[in-house]
Every structure is written in C-alpha cells, then in structure tokens.
Sequence to fold (164 residues):
Amino acid sequence: MAVPRIPHEPTARERQGLLRAARSIAIVGFSPNTARSSYYVATYLTQDTDYRLYFINPNAAGREVLGHTVHASLGDLPETPDIVDVFRRASDLPAVVEEVVALGSPAVWFQLGLTNDEAAGAARAAGATVVQNRCLKIEHARFHGGLHLAGFDTGVISARKTQR
Fold:
C-alpha cells in the first residue's frame, strides 16, 4: 500500500491511514540522550511497531543506538523513508523540507510543538503530505488502541463507552 499524499493538514482518519500505509520512518534530530523526546519516540517505535527505522543526527553518526545505526543525513539512508519525523527547531524546518523534497519522501511529520507554514507549504507544493504539531508516537498509540483521546493510557482497548 502506498503512503497517501494529502494536500492539506491531514484529519485524524488521514493520519491513521498515513501511519498504516508507512513501512519506514526516519527520525531527523534523533538524540541518543535518553531524556530527550526523540529517544522516547524511537524507543516506542522499536518496541511496538514493525517500521524500518532510521535515526538521523550528524553529531552521533556511526553510533549504534537501540539496535540501529545513526546516520548523518537523510541522503545516507539505504531507502527513501515513507515518513520523515522531525525533531528540530521550527527555524530549521525549511532546510529539512528541502532535503525531504530532494529525497522524494511522501510525508514529513513535524513533532509536537513544531509548526512552520513556509516549510509546510514548500513540502505540500512538492507533493508531500505534512503533519504539523503532532507527536507521531501519541498518534500511533491512539490509533492502535493504547491511548485515550486525551493521550493517556487507559489500559482498556475497546470502542464501547463505559456505563456509569
């Protein structure tokens, strides 16, 4: 199944489809520091999904973290990732989008707290799907039964409402 290209901010159902169709994810701005959110997201993805994962950080290139080699750039990857998940400053997003567009990746995901309409517009103009200000881990867990809509783990996987 091909990763869909969506020319607007994806709805919840479209984000779910994007995550289901993807087979590979690159995490740009990955940190080997266990206290960083990129490490936490990478840990979740290595344990709870079947995605092929690629970690991007020029300062940690060549290291092995969580069983994966850290790469210096997207261009060093053996394939074009279906989703590029970005943990960088909002001011860095235009440069990341340039790299994503040059690589031909179908989707770029700006993590929670990150928005840049200029970068998002450039990616969409090139035909890429853009998700802004959302955590890929939270969205994945929510769509796969692990989180309540507010983002909390309820421990219950059910579509039925509880009666009070």
Remarks:
- The two ends are 41 Å apart (CA to CA).
